[in-house]
Design a protein that fits this description.
Number of helices: 3
Number of domains: 1
Helix content: 25-40%
Structural class: mainly alpha
Low-confidence stretches: none
Number of strands: 0
Length: 96
């Protein structure tokens, strides 16, 4: 049996995160790796449970799942984290 493990680099993950943030950036925030998630995302800008915050989180979880990273609980303060900080946290396999 051959097991193939996909890998996503920190730069790749940050690029995906910035791409996804751009889709929700109706405030016109300049996006870079130091962007705070709270400056772009909101939890009451959608319909029901579908908000920019939940859709973004689901998209990033899907990317990580497809790169064979185990599901993990995100830190409760992730909206106050930068793209750089959160990517470190999510890619740390010891941080389940």
């Amino acid at each position: 049996m051959i097991i193939i493990m996909a890998v996503i680099s920190k730069d790749d993950l940050m690029n995906v995160m910035l791409y996804e943030l751009a889709a929700f950036n109706d405030e016109g925030v300049d996006l870079d790796t130091q962007t705070l998630h709270d400056d772009v995302l909101d939890d009451n800008d959608g319909f029901g449970a579908a908000s920019s915050k939940s859709l973004y989180k689901g998209s990033i979880d899907w990317v990580l799942w497809n790169a064979d990273y185990p599901h993990r609980n995100w830190p409760s303060n992730w909206m106050d984290m930068t793209v750089d900080e959160l990517s470190d946290m999510l890619l740390n396999r010891n941080n389940l």
